[in-house]
UniProtKB/TrEMBL annotation:
Positions of region (Disordered): 1-30
Protein name in UniProt: DUF2470 domain-containing protein
Biased composition (Basic and acidic residues): 16-25
UniProt cross-references to InterPro entries, sorted A to Z: Haem_oxidase_HugZ-like_sf
PANTHER family documented for this protein: CREG1 PROTEIN, OS07G0573800 PROTEIN
Gene3D superfamilies named among the record's database cross-references: PNP-oxidase-like (3.20.180.10)
Source species: Streptomyces cacaoi
Entry superkingdom: Bacteria
Lineage: Bacteria, Bacillati, Actinomycetota, Actinomycetes, Kitasatosporales
Length: 267
């Protein structure tokens, strides 16, 4: 079973994600939104009230996203999407839009959606001299995604407000908070790291959580402050545990030392 004092509550009657009950070192809401915006997880851009019109499934999908130094979000969308077509005729900042981001755990666990974020603001096309700078930002963030051209369009979302509802809780974010925040340094590698922990260090994860027979456990989330693990069984349902690192880590090399410390303490 999970160690006393570390376990977090299980899901409620509606099957929502477990939430922390105690104060813990954690990313701010602005950092969590910024991390999701700059990640490669699924995101969809919509214009409230706009008709979908003719198009292919997936219109509005953001193939890539990046954030400018001023805190605007640059998105790459299909050129024939309703958003790209509407934006082509928009005047200044009169086109309101919402981007919804869905974060799904990269390992198999119950209640696999870890959270969602919404970023609302005003949409304009990227034009003129801005195109080269925005294209570089997108290429740095998503080098494998084809650049804008005849099939894709770069749009700018000026952030008016943001909201996150995830493993840490639900909270709103102001534009200046979003612009000043930094994404988590482990985010670009998190999926690969969690999959490696699940496949190669399963017994160490079980030892960390003091699991009993019949209980299944898997690493659920990593950030610079610590590791979150999810355990479940037919009898006890679903439960999360959080293990803080001695110090926040700045990258994968520091993470190796932090994980070694956790596993050594558990052993």
């Amino acid at each position: 079973m999970f160690r006393p004092g570390i376990s977090l509550p299980g899901t409620d009657a509606e099957g929502e994600q477990p939430r922390p009950m105690e104060d813990a070192r954690q990313p701010t809401a602005a950092e969590r939104v910024r991390t999701l915006v700059q990640s490669s997880v699924s995101a969809v851009l919509t214009i409230p009230g706009a008709e979908a019109g003719p198009g292919t499934p997936g219109d509005g999908d953001c193939a890539a996203r990046a954030v400018t130094p001023d805190g605007d979000v640059i998105v790459l969308v299909p050129a024939d999407s309703p958003e790209a077509r509407a934006c082509a005729y928009a005047q200044d900042d009169d086109l309101a839009a919402v981007m919804e981001i869905t974060d799904v755990a990269p390992v198999s666990v119950p209640h696999r959606i870890r959270g969602r974020a919404w970023v609302a603001g005003w949409l304009t096309p990227v034009r003129g001299e801005e195109r080269a700078a925005c294209a570089r930002l997108l290429a740095q963030a998503h080098p494998s995604v084809p650049a804008a051209g005849t099939a894709r369009r770069m749009l700018r979302l000026e952030v008016g407000e943001a909201y996150v509802d995830d493993l840490w809780g639900a909270e709103g974010v102001e534009p200046d908070e979003f612009a000043a925040a930094a994404p988590d340094p482990l985010a670009p590698h998190e999926a690969e790291l969690l999959q490696h922990l699940a496949s190669a260090h399963g017994e160490q994860i079980r030892a960390l959580c003091l699991c009993r027979a019949g209980e299944t456990v898997a690493p659920l989330a990593l950030d610079r402050f610590g590791l979150r693990v999810r355990g479940w069984s037919a009898e006890a349902g679903c439960m999360d545990a959080r293990y803080d690192f001695p110090e926040p880590v700045g990258g994968v090399p520091e993470l190796r030392h932090a994980m070694h410390a956790l596993f050594t303490a558990a052993g």
